[in-house]
Amino acid sequence: MSFTLATWNINSVRLREPIVLRLLEEQAPDVLCLQECKSPVDKIPREGFNALGYTHMVARGDKGYNGVAILSKLPMEEVSAMDFASLGHARHIAGRLANGVTVHNFYVPAGGDVPDREKNDKFGQKLDYLTEMRDHFAENAPAKSILVGDLNIAPREDDVWDHKKLLKIVSHTPVEVEHLSAVQTAGDWVDVTRKDIPEGLLYSWWSYRAKDWNAADKGRRLDHIWATSDIADAAHSSRILRDVRGWEKPSDHAPVFATFDL
Q1: For the whole model, what pTM was predicted?
Q2: Which end of the chain has the lower number of beta carbons within 10 A, N or C?
Q3: For position 113, what pLDDT does the model report?
């Protein structure tokens, strides 16, 4: 069985329903994981998705912020929805496909603007969230699993437009990178995107603040697809659809894709 999976921080699924439909029509991934849906589950506009064959959905939602959903052409059953750091936010949902693959969809807290937990509670919440992710996967070793989402951290030097300038900027600080690496190690996760694209600058997010995001190209790779080591070699064809960032009324994130032969 071969299936293609995509992950995309959509920054409001209702506001950006037209470009979600466009992506589904043009790219037709079998599974689409969305973050920052900003919608209660019962308000997610499913009719158009269903019409394109995405008749299966597992989701958690908050009104106006957070929210995660997995849309699937393939049968999927909900597995879990975890509340790490006890934030009470809709930041995780997991579903299992008929072939036994579990898909975890995460929206890790952004962490505010100041990389100091003593001065910024949001940064502390982010680190705590990552710590609890680490502990969960250490205690519950995942297998035949895929982890995707907006992890809000660009871990490698070539995942940001300027490594030295961003070392003190939230999303690329050493402490965040260390916490994310601990999560990856605990679950024996393989960074599928970088397995397929091992070298070179690679971004999935560009700020709305840039007058011309494409020309400035000050991006960061905040969105990830990981797989447990038992299935990582089955992954291929990783790509980031940069052009989607330039669609009408876009999210500030671009979707990330990978295909799995399982």
Answers
A1: 0.98
A2: N
A3: 97
